[in-house]
Automatic annotation (TrEMBL):
Topology term for the membrane: Multi-pass membrane protein
Subcellular localization, as worded in the UniProt entry: Endomembrane system
Keyword annotations from UniProtKB, A to Z: Membrane, Transmembrane, Transmembrane helix
Main location (coarse class): membrane
Protein name: Conserved protein
Keyword tRNA processing belongs to the record: no
GO cellular component: endomembrane system
Organism for this UniProt entry: Methanothermobacter thermautotrophicus (strain ATCC 29096 / DSM 1053 / JCM 10044 / NBRC 100330 / Delta H) (Methanobacterium thermoautotrophicum)
InterPro entries reported for this sequence: DUF1232 (IPR010652)
Segments forming domain DUF1232: 49-83
Amino acid sequence: MEFTDFYDILRENLNSYRGDYDRIVDYAPDLFRLLADLLQSRDIEREDRLMICAAMGYLVAPNDIIPEEIFGPHGYIDDVYLCSVVVDRLAGRMGYRFLEEYWSGDEDLESVVGECISRASEILGDKRTSVLEYTGLR
């Protein structure tokens, strides 16, 4: 039996999705990988590690604010929002240049994060607060 990591599961779940939100939902696997890879860095402080783990935990939580089981790929919008907020907070402390070293996506990380926060914020509206409260990040 071959081990499939969560990145591959996310990629498989989202590869065929085409819809109004596919542009930001498609970033979920790469944002997850970035957060996971950042945990390997000795430069990540304890407080930042906890924030990263909260975002990663939220990605795998079955009953988050917009559950994937009920909403399908649309259910990743809140996950992408949270991951993007966490990456943006990390960038505020460490800079995007540092984070880019761990980014495997094809596009500029700062642009991706900005787009994800902006677009997901429009979609989530007041639910943004619930997402942050769920993870203890607000």
